[in-house]
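Treating backbone geometry as a discrete language has practical consequences that deserve illustration. Part of our work consisted of pairing the sequence of a single chain with a tokenised description of its backbone. What the numbers capture is local backbone geometry rather than side-chain detail. For completeness, the protein is quoted in full, as a sequence line and a line of structure tokens:
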Amino acid sequence: MADKRDYYEVLGVSREATPQDLKSAYRRLAHQYHPDKNPNDKAAEERFKEISEAYAVLADEEKRAAYDRFGHAGISGSGAAAEGFPFGFGGFPGGGINDIFGDIFGEVFGGGRRSRAAKNRGADLRYNLELSFEEAAFGCETKVRLPRPKRCEACGGSGSRAGRESRCSTCGGTGEQRFQQGFFAVSRACTRCGGSGTVLADPCPACRGDGRVQSSAELSLRIPPGLDTGARIRLSGEGEPGERGGPAGDLYVVVHVRDHPIFRRQDDDVVCRVPISFVQAALGAQIDVPTLDGKVAMKVPAGTQNGRVFRLREKGIPSSGGRRRGDQLVEVAVETPTHLSREQRDLLERFAELSGDQTHPQAHSFFDKVRELFG
């Protein structure tokens, strides 16, 4: 399987997209890239096939659930690739929408068929890795376990007990079967040899001729600092082994960062909202502010207003290249006291009598502007 993009990314929707969201995105993109609207445009043709494949999986609840859990590997084998996608192409059993669209458009727009080597390459796999906010910020080392076929040891991945192959009698060794569908000349992979042009003379009983057996793998993974949700780590050759000894695909580890109860990320900066009392805001104070490195003392000057943002240099997240580190932005939230005692209320009322409106510069400026506007 060639490298595949994430299906949600293909349709431009989030992973929480509803069926209606998926349908709307598909209709919009399919209309934009339909071959009839883009004649002789190979890029549009490939984009249309990619969009159709993505929607075919995500529109099906079972296939979408498998994809969300295991990525493209979850719909290979006995999944979507074997069953075909739910589009009305009667008379073409066993082929997915990629094969059907690829054959039709290949004939109409002059595209060639895929090489046998490309077909034998193993599928790319996807693994969704959940990290804490701190792990994503500073990087870490972890282990991941994923279901992954491995090369059959009994036959060395060839699929044949004796290592012998013979020319497929159904397609004559071409790997293709051709049909006439109206004015379309349609070709698809041979149903007997799967497009390889050869069949096994003596299939291996351990893997039933596939060259692979079901297994799982545990991999050590180093997470670099500064990754955010959606970042992908590519591990070359760690995907499924290819059919009949073909090269292995790649593994894509997709990062998902858990929400933090205090911090949120803004590019490479960390944003934190810290409550202070109105007395601290009025008189000034020194407060302890939580950071990724622990508590840091920060001075709040007298007369600080609600929502003011202070910057703590280099207390944010390391950049992905590791050349610099972001800052922490501290937004102060001035809290109004509740459940005042009688004495506290008397003191505040006395304060209000003494201060008038001179101690509230923002309100004074605001009402001056109101008078200018409305007279």
User: Anything to note?
Assistant: Residues 121-154+207-258 form a domain with the HSP40/DNAj peptide-binding domain fold (CATH 2.60.260.20). Confidence is low (pLDDT under 50) at residues 77-119. The chain has three domains: 1-114, 121-154+207-258, 263-374. Residues 32 and 38 are 9 Å apart (CA to CA).
